[in-house]
Amino acid sequence: MDLKRFENLSLPVIAGIAILFLLNSSCKHDGITADQMAPVAFADVQQVYYGYCTSCHSGGNGGESHLDFTTYEGILRTVSPGNSSNSESYQAMINTFQIMPPNGAVPTNQRTLIRLWIDQGAKPE
Ligand code: HEC
After folding, report:
1. Cα–chain-centroid distance for residue 91?
2. Distance CA 54, CA 38 (A)
3. CA-closest residue to ligand 1 atom 32
4. 43, CA 20 to 30 Å: which among 9, 11, 30, 49?
């Protein structure tokens, strides 16, 4: 009797796991791909760096790790256009081991903005 119940369950359970697996493997991060989104303006990107990063990373004297996020050129040095998973500064924002900024994370919507901007080609405008 009990075994029979399990048999009836197993098919939907297996199908469910398969669907979850497929969904998961076809999704990138939060599931939004860069080409589905309107172009992100660099001005908005710069605001995130100014809000969360430049207090420590403004280059020159005492800039941590000599990173300078106050200019496009400085940001671009830590970014691989079109490839957020290979972009140091974005990876630092989602790093679970040593997240940046060290005292708390950038809110998800603003991190997504950075990721989209990079994956859209990290343009200066
Ligand atoms: C409160 C100061 C502070 C803030 C704010 C801050 N960082 Fe850092 N960051 C540091 C320090 C300190 C290091 C050097 C850590 C080390 O080398 O161990 C560092 C290192 C880094 C590195 C190099 C990682 C490495 O392994 O050397 C990157 C990339 C980085 N930060 C990106 C960012 C980004 C992007 C932001 C904003 C979202 C940010 N940081 C905000 C202090 C800060």
Report:
1. 7
2. 26
3. 89
4. 30
Confidence class for position 1, pLDDT limits 50, 70, 90: low
pLDDT in tens, 54-113: 999 998 755 677 899 999 999 999 999 999 999 999 999 999 888 999 988 999 999 999
72: CA distance to ligand 1 center in Å?
17
CA torsion sign, 73 to 53 to 41 to 90? positive
Distance between CA 2 and CA 9 in Å, rounded?
A: 11
Structure token digits, residue 28? 């990138």
To test ligand 1's pocket by mutation, which of 55, 76, 100 has the most ligand atoms within 8 angstroms of CB? Answer: 100
Nearest-angstrom CA–CA distance, 11 and 57: 54
4 C-alpha to ligand 1 centroid (Å): 57
- Output the CA 100–ligand 1 centroid distance in Å: 5
Sign of CA dihedral 57, 102, 80, 72: negative
Contact 74, 65 (CB under 8 A): no
**Tokens of residue 29, six digits:** 């991060």
